[in-house]
Amino acid sequence: MTPFWIALQFLTVLPIELKTIPTAQQNGRAILFYPLVGLIIGGILFIVACLFAKLPVFLLATIIITLWIWITGGLHLDGLADTADAWVGGFGDKLRTLQIMKDPSCGPIGVLSLVIICLLKFALVYVLIEQHQTLFLVFVPSLGRIVPSILFLTTPYVREKGLGRSLTDHLPKTASWIITGFVLLLPLYWELQGLIAIISFLISLVYLRHLFVKRIGGITGDTVGAAIELSETVLLFAFVSSYFYLV
């Protein structure tokens, strides 16, 4: 179970203490448990939404977004900010883009990207609650956490060192594809609405992968984090907006 605890420690702020330093193989296998950790995150969001269902929708949506950011430690938001800064400041140059990504400071474009993505997610969660489809919140973080598997399985990792290199080299490919396929089927509980959301999710991920390969020749940890945030937002948007066209 060590890979599971590694995944839970890495993806959340829950107080998990590992008895030993993880090996490269354990880090690679941990990615298989990312979707399960996503389900745990989504389950917590759903339970909180149910417990405080009598609150005004605006307040409840604010609580959900705040909890979502807190429980993940803003991990992927950090990747989004670094990627946004690098994409604008890199001026199309690969080396400059990679250098900016390594800078721990957050520039104005990075801050703007965080504001926009958080506003979009807030609005989408607000509408999701209004539509009485809060159950979908359980699956959004899980789907977001199959993004690393898909990218690591299909895209070169451009840095020579780091956690991403360990994941790429030791990720169990067959098991990862099986888990990814299973998670992609979960939104079909909502039939056509869920299918539209999944197709939109996959199209956005393919497009993001294309952008990453075109600019830097592959992916980094920051671009994976950005892809998680953006694909989750597209998934929510497609699910929420399709409701109004299908009813």
From TrEMBL:
<protein>
    <recommendedName>
        <fullName>Adenosylcobinamide-GDP ribazoletransferase</fullName>
        <ecNumber>2.7.8.26</ecNumber>
    </recommendedName>
</protein>
<feature type="transmembrane region" description="Helical">
    <location>
        <begin position="57"/>
        <end position="77"/>
    </location>
</feature>
<dbReference type="GO" id="GO:0008818">
    <property type="term" value="F:cobalamin 5'-phosphate synthase activity"/>
</dbReference>
<dbReference type="Pfam" id="PF02654">
    <property type="entry name" value="CobS"/>
</dbReference>
<keyword id="KW-0169">Cobalamin biosynthesis</keyword>
<comment type="function">
    <text>Joins adenosylcobinamide-GDP and alpha-ribazole to generate adenosylcobalamin (Ado-cobalamin). Also synthesizes adenosylcobalamin 5'-phosphate from adenosylcobinamide-GDP and alpha-ribazole 5'-phosphate.</text>
</comment>
<feature type="transmembrane region" description="Helical">
    <location>
        <begin position="195"/>
        <end position="212"/>
    </location>
</feature>
<dbReference type="InterPro" id="IPR003805">
    <property type="entry name" value="CobS"/>
</dbReference>
<comment type="similarity">
    <text>Belongs to the CobS family.</text>
</comment>
<feature type="transmembrane region" description="Helical">
    <location>
        <begin position="224"/>
        <end position="246"/>
    </location>
</feature>
<keyword id="KW-1003">Cell membrane</keyword>
<feature type="transmembrane region" description="Helical">
    <location>
        <begin position="31"/>
        <end position="52"/>
    </location>
</feature>
<feature type="transmembrane region" description="Helical">
    <location>
        <begin position="136"/>
        <end position="154"/>
    </location>
</feature>
<keyword id="KW-0808">Transferase</keyword>
<keyword id="KW-0812">Transmembrane</keyword>
<keyword id="KW-1133">Transmembrane helix</keyword>
<comment type="pathway">
    <text>Cofactor biosynthesis; adenosylcobalamin biosynthesis; adenosylcobalamin from cob(II)yrinate a,c-diamide: step 7/7.</text>
</comment>
<dbReference type="GO" id="GO:0051073">
    <property type="term" value="F:adenosylcobinamide-GDP ribazoletransferase activity"/>
</dbReference>
<keyword id="KW-0460">Magnesium</keyword>
<dbReference type="GO" id="GO:0005886">
    <property type="term" value="C:plasma membrane"/>
</dbReference>
<keyword id="KW-0472">Membrane</keyword>
<feature type="transmembrane region" description="Helical">
    <location>
        <begin position="109"/>
        <end position="129"/>
    </location>
</feature>
<dbReference type="GO" id="GO:0009236">
    <property type="term" value="P:cobalamin biosynthetic process"/>
</dbReference>
<keyword id="KW-0997">Cell inner membrane</keyword>
